Amino acid sequence: MDRDWRSLRLGIIATDAIAIVAAYAAAAAVRFGFPELLRNSPMLTACVVLGLDGFLVTLALAWQQGTYRRGALMGGHRVYPPLVTAVTYGAVTMTVLSHFVGSPLPASRGWLVGCWSGSILALFISRLVWRRVALQWRKGGALIRRILIAGANQQGIAVAQQLHDPLRHGTVVVGFLDDYERPGTEVLPGLAVVGHPSSAAIKARELKADEVVIILGALAWESQRQLAELVTRPDSPVEGRISATFYDLLTTSAELNHVAYVPMLSLNRNRLSGFNAATKRFLDQTVSGAMLLALAPLFGYWRVKAWTLRSRMFEFQSVLGTCGRPFRLAGLHAGLTGSPVLARLPALWNVLCQDLSLVGPRPIRMEELPAHERWRANLFAVRSGLTGLWRLRESEDAVEERVALDLYYVRNCTLTLDLQILLQTGRELVRRSMGRRSLLARWKAEGAKAVVLEVASQIPDAASWEEVFEGVPAEATGEGQR
Fold first, then answer.
1. Taking every annotated instance into account, which residue ranges of this chain make up the domain Bacterial sugar transferase (predicted)?
2. How far apart are CA 227 and CA 237, in angstroms?
3. β-sheet bridge partners, residue 315
4. What residues have CB less than 8 Å from 37, skipping those under 6 apart?
5. Chosen domain end from 113, 139, 165
6. What average pLDDT does the structure give for the chain?
7. Is pLDDT at 439 greater than 70 in this prediction?
8. What span, in angstroms and rounded, lies between the C-alpha atoms of 271 and 127?
9. Strands (DSSP E) along 360-427, which ranges?
10. Which one, 102, 152, 315, 447, has the greatest CB density within 10 A?
């Protein structure tokens, strides 16, 4: 695993270096022209000096901000702001240095701007390419993190279920360490307690584990201390992470900071508030209103067809919205169309009325409320969505798995993430219209529960825009209730 990652990291650094040099050279060619540069020796020298300065500063800051760590490549869109920061500081140092270089370059703002914008574009493309490479390596069994879970209580089991997915998350759980269960006790199918926390170093070597995830509250205080000392030693065979016992109850994300030299987790406020919340409402109503107007002839056709068939045009089901307020989710009657996509279109009216959002958590039916009771306050903190991350999974998921995606969205929702999800939705709709296999998830009633039957993922690590997923809840269609 470490050898594979080192090879991948060297490739990323080399590609980033080439991308920056190519961006600088392209900007010089556009601004000055290579023939002119070759004839003008002072200008060429200044370009080389300034370019070398920006190159070194950009790579150094990219390294310092952690863009070459394991989590950065598969960490989604979070890697891009640090890259922009590194490139920006590189361009600033070039600008400052240009005033001390005896050349016409201080007036060449066009070249400096070209270097800045070209580097950002080139680095973004580089990361997207290497991300695809990493995903292919992962499918071949490389870059998989092997994890020991320290704590076999309910919380530890829930964490293990989420992490035990090599293709989606690049992690596989190899066993549990626990104070209270005997070694050999099977906690999950195929996963057992492998030893006491005091044997973590030995078990990590035997099982070739890369990390130990410590579940706070699941172990005795002494065991937690021993594990913390183990994973922080310079010669430790494993890395360590801590999972707070209330992670699935947090509405927002948490950040580590220090107060009076004491490390503490700060709970962030809801990300969408004020201007962002108003913008989201404006986009919801503008887009849904425009689509309803554009689709008016189609709705007229369905109205006539419903009269002809002497059937209802719409069917409704009761779902829960913001603060648990129930509303009627609209959908076409099953006999009017066999397309699950078209059957969902009336829900745009719910978006226009602000019962629903274009992007948000999965709508919860009244019958499903008991299964979601522990997350109720968090899931109802924002409006449910016509599409969202909850639609992109590779297999049928348990309630906890679907809720984990909803909570991730609530904690990390931004307008950028919404746009990424909508773009992914549009792409899958085009695939379906072309007769290709669509990745749109389907929501079918099964007894008193609605479960996801068809889902797929671009792999959310939980949140680059390739990890963004799509799906639209609707009422009954020709294939069953959705």
1. 343-429
2. 12
3. 331
4. 28, 43, 44, 47
5. 139
6. 80
7. no
8. 26
9. 364-365, 385-387
10. 152
